[in-house]
Amino acid sequence: MGMSQRRRLLAPVGLLAVGALALAGCAEGDSSGSGDGGTEGATVRISGGITGTEADALNQSFEQFTKDTGIKVEYTGDKGFEGNIVTKVTGGDAPDIAIVPQPGLLKTLVDTGEVQKASDAVSSNVDEYWGEDWKSYGTFDDTFYAAPMLANLKGYVWYSPAKFKEWGVEIPKTYDELLTLTQTIRDKTGAAPWCAGFASEAASGWPGTDWIEDLVLRQSGPDVYDQWVAGDVKFTDQPIKEAFDAVGEILLNPDYVNAGFGDVRSINSVAFADVAAKVADGTCPMTHQASFLSANFLTVKNAAGQTPTVAPDGDVYAFILPRVSEGELSVEGGGEFVAAFSDDEAVQKVVEYMSTPEFADARVKLGGVISANKGADPSLASSEFLTEAMKVLQDPNTTLRFDASDLMPATVGSGSFWKGMVSWIDGKPTDEVLSDIQAGYNN
Amino acid sequence: MVTRAPVETRPTTLGFSLNSFFRWLGGLNPIVQIPIIVVVFGAVVGLILLLIEYAPRPGRGYFWLRLAACFLLPVLAFMLLRPYQNAVIYVLGIAVILGAVLFWADYRSRQGAGYLFQLILFAAPATILLLVGLIYPAISTLVQSFFDKTGDNFVGLDNYIWTFTNPEGFWSVINTLIWVLLAPTFATAIGLAYAVFIDRAKGERVLKILIFMPFAISFVGAGIIWKFIYDFRQGDQIGLLNGIVTAFGGQPVTWLAAQPLVNTLLLVVVFIWSQTGLAMVILSAAIKAVPPEQMEAAELDGANAWERFRNVTVPGIRSSLIVVVTTIAIGALKIYDIVAVMTGGRNDTTVLAFEMVNQQQRFQSYGHSAALAVVLFIFVLPLIIFNVRQIRKQREIR
Predict the structure, then answer these.
(1) What residue of B is the nearest CA neighbor of A414?
(2) Which is nearest to A129 in space by CA: A330, A352, A350?
C-alpha cells in the first residue's frame, strides 16, 4: 500500500468514528419514548395482519391522535402475522402493540406472559361501549387483557337485487324459504344459483367453517354454540352433523353450485374473494360471505363494465342468512383485539385511544370497515350496507357470537376444521370428516 | 432446530442494533440516506482493512490484539444482529472465519505462544458459539421431543408415536422418503443424460443455459410458476396440464388434490425441474475432465458408445456423481417452500420440514415439532456420514 504510516492509521479510525456517530442516532429502544420526558415525540410500533390499503387507512386513522398528543403511531402489516408473532414475542422482539385477529391466538400470546393487562381506562371503555361478551373474548383467567378494535359481521348472503326483481323472488325469512328460493332460481335460469370459494392459501377452507358456524347458531341456538366452542359438544354430535347436512343441501348439490366456476369440487380451487366478480356481473345469483366482501366490490365490474353499486336497489346487496326457526336474530361476528406488550405511557395512551369511539369513528370514516363500538356513529360508514351492518352489531337485541373456529384451539380452529371443510367438498363422507376434525383436538 | 428463548429473560443488547439502525435510516430523507450508507460501508471496509493490516504483524502486543479481536468482534456482531432470527448462525460464521484468519496470521508471525495454546485460544469463540448455537439447540430439541406441546410435562415417546400414527405426521414421513428417493435419482439421471448428449454438441452453451435457468429461480418462484401449470378450473383453462387434458376431450383434473401420491409426485417434479440444471452443470464439467486418451483407448478396443459410457465415463465422474446425488438428496429432505407455496400441506402432501414449522408456528405444538425435527435429523444423518466417508476415502487415494 502506498499510504504513509499515519494515514494508514487515521483513515480507518476516522471512518470508524463517523460510523459510530451514525449509529449513535439510532439507539435501540428509543422507539417508545422515555417515561419521565413525557410522551411527546414518542413512536409506538403496531404490528398486525392487516395489509394493503386497509393498513394505510389504519395509519391514517391516528392522524388526529398524533396531532393532539404528539405520539407517533407506526402500523406495519405482515401477511404472515399469525405464524410469526408468537415466535417474535417469545424471542424477545415483540412490537409495542399487536392487533390480533383471533382470540385463540390471543390466548397463546397471553400464555407467553408478555401481554400487559389492560388498564382501567381501557377496561371501563370496553364495559361502556362493547358489553360483556366482547370483553370475555379478551379475558383469560379472570384477567382482562385486550380490547376489541374493529369488527365484521358474518353470515351475509350477497345477491343481485335487480335479478331478484326480474325473477320475482323475495328475500327469504327462513332457511327453508332460502332452499325454496334456490330451487326457484335454478328452475328459472337452469344454472347454479350459488357460488362459493374456499381457497385462501394456507387458510383454505375457512369460508366453509363460517357456513357451518352460522348453521349451528341458527339451528341449535347460542347455548349449543357455546358448548361446541368449549369442546363439550363434539363435532361428531348430532347438532354439528345437522349443520353439515343443512349446508350440504346447498354446497354439495351439483345443481346448486358452483355458479360461474364449475362443479362442487371447484369450490376448493376458487379464491374466496373471486366470487365477488361473479356476483357483480350477474353470473352468480347468491354467495355466502362476511360483511368484508363489500370491499371486494370496489375492484370488480358489473355486467355493463362499471363498478357495481352496493345498495338495496343496486347491482349487489346482502341479506343476513335467515334463521331456521322463528326467534330472535342470532348472528356471528369476528374482530381484532389490541394487545399491548409494553406498559410504557405512550403505548398505554395509544391502546386507550384505540378503545374509544373517537378511534372507531376515525377509522370507520376512512371506509371499508365497521366497528362494534356502541359509541361509534354508524352513519360514518362508507356505504349504506356497512351502516346497516354496524347497526346490527350495535343493537343490544342482537345475539352475537364470535367466530367459533377462531375461539377453538388452533389445532382444530385453524387446523383440522379448515382441512376438514376442504376434504368434505372433495367428497369425503360427512361422518369421516367430522371424526377427522374432532381428532384435531388430540393433535 | 426448534429453539425457544426463556420467557423471563430478554436477550442482552448493546443499546443499538442493525435493526434499529435501519429503522432510523428508513426515517430519513432518501438523499441523506445515500452518504450515510456510503460512510457506514466505508467504516466496515476500514475495519476489515485494519485487521488485515495488523493481523500478520509479529510481536506480543499484536498477538493480544488479535486475540481480543477474535473474542470481541463476534460479541459485537451478536449485539448488532440481535433481533434477527438467525443471528447466531451469522455470528458463528463470523467467529469461525475470524478465528481461522487470525490464527493463521498469528501462526505465520511465529512469535506467539505454543501452537496448541494458540489454537485453543483462537478457536474458543467459535467453539463456544457452536455449543450455544448448534449443540445446545440440538440437545434441547431432543429433550423437548419427549415433552408435551407446552414443554412442561414428560410424555415419553408420545410425540414419536404421534409422528408415525397421526395422518399429518405419518404423511410427512412417507412423503419425505418419496422426495429423497425420487428427486436425486431423477434429477441426476436426467442431468447426466443431458450432459452426455450435449457434450461437444453444436451450441452446447445455449443448450446448457436452457436447462440451467430453472436452477436460478427460487423454490417459491418455481412453485408459483408450476401452480399455473397444474391449475384447475372448469370452463376456460389457464392451467397447461388441464388445457392439454381438455383438448383431448378429457375432464379437468384437480392435480394438486389428486390422491394418493399423485399430488406429491407432481410437487417432486417441480423440484426435479429446478435441480436438474445443477446436476447437469457439475456432471458436464466432470465429463470434460475425463481424459480423452481413456476414451480413445476404449474406442480402439472396440467398445461401443454405451460401453464407453458405462466403463469409462461413469467411473471417471464417480465422485462428482456422489456429490450431486447427496446434495440434491439433502435439498429434498429439507424441502419446505414448494410444499408451502403450492399446497400448504393439504391433501397429504406435507413433508417433515413443512410440518415441523406448521406444528410450531401455527399450533404452538413444540413437542410434535421437536419430534419431527429429530426424525428429519435421523434421515439426514446417514447421508452426511456417507459424504464424510467418501471425502476421507478420496484423501486416502491421494
Answers:
(1) B362
(2) A352
Task: Identify the three-state secondary structure at position A304.
Answer: coil
- Is residue B259 helix, strand or coil? coil
Cα–Cα distance for residue pair A193/A188, rounded to 1 Å: 10
CB–CB of B190/B277 below 8 Å?
A: no
The backbone torsions φ and ψ at residue B146, rounded to the nearest 5 degrees and listed phi first, read -100, 5
- As a 3-state breakdown, chain A gives helix, strand, coil percent values, each rounded to 5, of 50, 15, 35
Is 70 exceeded by the pLDDT of residue A8? no
Task: List pLDDT tens digits, range A161-194.
Answer: 888 888 888 888 888 899 999 999 999 888 899 9
Whether the per-residue pLDDT at A98 is higher than 90: the answer is: yes
Instruction: Name the CA dihedral angle for B333, B337, B342, B347, rounded to a multiple of 10 degrees.
Output: 40
What was the pLDDT predicted at A12? 46
Among the partner-chain residues B5, B17, B257, the one whose CB lies closest to the CB of A28 is B17
Return the ∠ at Cα B387 (arms to B381 and B389), rounded to 5°. 105
Query: Which tens digit of pLDDT belongs to each residue from B249-292?
Result: 887 787 877 778 888 999 999 999 999 999 999 999 998 888 88
**Complex-level ipTM:** 0.71
- State whether residue B15 sits within 8 Å of chain A by CB: yes
349-368 in chain B: CB under 8 A from chain A: 360-365, 368
Interacting residues of A373 by C-beta distance below 8 A, sequence separation 6+: A129, A130, A148, A356, A357, A360, A394
β partners of residue A159: A286, A317
Question: Residue A258: is the preceding peptide bond cis (ω within 30°)?
Answer: yes
CA distance B176 to chain A (A): 20
pLDDT, one tens digit per residue, over B342-395 is: 887 777 888 999 988 888 877 778 888 899 999 999 988 888 888 888 878 777
pLDDT score, position A25: 43
Interface of B with A in 141-200 (CB under 8 A): 162, 166-168
Q: Which residue has the cell 336474530?
A: A329
- Average pLDDT over all residues of chain A: 84
B39 and chain A: CB distance < 8 Å anywhere?
Answer: yes
Contact residues, chain B, for A14 at CB < 8 Å: 46
What grid cell was written down for B35? Answer: 452518504
**Nearest residue of B to residue A24, measured between CA atoms:** B16
Chain B positions in Cβ-Cβ contact with residue A86 (cut-off 8 Å): 361, 364
- Measured in whole angstroms, the distance separating CA B263 from the mean position of its chain's CA atoms is 24
The C-alpha cell that represents B212 in the structure block: 440451467
- Cα A194 from Cα A287, distance rounded (Å): 6
Q: Are A71 and A65 in contact (CB under 8 A)?
A: yes
Q: Is the pLDDT of residue B119 over 90?
A: no
Dihedral over alpha carbons A324, A328, A332, A333 (to 10 degrees): 160
The CA distances from residue A235 to A208, A209, A416, A434, in Å, are: 15, 12, 11, 6
Cis peptide leading into residue B260 (ω within 30°) = yes
How far does Cα A214 stand from its chain's mean position? Answer: 15
> How far is the C-alpha of B158 from the C-alpha of A26, rounded, in Å?
48
The whole-angstrom separation of Cα B92 and Cα B75 is 10
- In angstroms, the CA A287 to CA A289 distance is 6
Q: Is the pLDDT of residue B4 over 70?
A: no
Query: pLDDT, tens digit, for every residue of A107-125?
Result: 888 988 889 999 999 999 9
Residue to mutate among B14, B23, B152, with most A CBs inside 10 A, is B23
